[in-house]
Amino acid sequence: MRVQLLQKTLFSGQSIITGEPRAGLCLRGLVLCCGVLVLCSPSFGAVRSTQKKSSHKSVSSSTARSRNRLHYSKWDPMFPGSHELLVEQNAELDRQQLPRMGNEYQLMQSELANDLVPVAETEELKVAENLSDSRRYCRPWTRDFLQDLSHAFYEAFHAPLQVNSLVRTADQQQILRRHNRFAAPAAGDTASTHLAGVSVDLSRRGLSNTQYQWIRAYLQPLQQKGLVNPIEERQPVLHVVVFEKYSEKYATPKSNSEASEATEAEVAGFVGSQP
Q1: Domain 83-249 class?
Q2: Which of 15, 112, 252, 262 can bridge 266 by disulfide, Cβ–Cβ 3.0-4.6 Å?
């Protein structure tokens, strides 16, 4: 009976309960569907908003990685460092028979013997505040280089250069390597040249592009003559190794009598230039 009544109702267009026409049922169904859509729309918007935020984060992180890759891809130093270069530098120091500072006692002995000389602050050259007094030492020719460079730089820009690091001990270098992945070893054929007191780290912070290009141009001919060996690191410092031959520019010139004595070629040239 119930099945027959349901069939009759469905095909006659009458409501089971009220006997309303089927159009009323359709209208109610439509209203019900609209209500469901309205109730669901906030969560639908929330899902879309979440997806957009997630997508934004993904794009941002991807952009940051791209910028980092671009930054490193642009790294094009004029004076690049390498394993082979460190080996060559240490071999040259061995030929010069320059000892490395193993500990504080050896450092103190070298300073008292004037094998290492102090680097004083001037109007043209500043020293980093965190560099202790016992570390403000280097070889005499390295100090000569610093004085020459800082004087020329000050003449050009009326601004001082800053030294961040000079001599180090092997003990200090080992501690430094724990915190600085760019630091050279404390021993071996690639040991840090700071241990011999021949190297200096110049700060690049605060330098304009014009100033830094000037320093590059200043170092290039010295490098070509084998007097210095600069290395541009990814850190904001310029590492420069100064060889003992740099001191040859301060060699005593000929005596006045020898210097004033003309050679035969000079005499011939002078005579030949007469009208």
Answers
A1: alpha beta
A2: 262
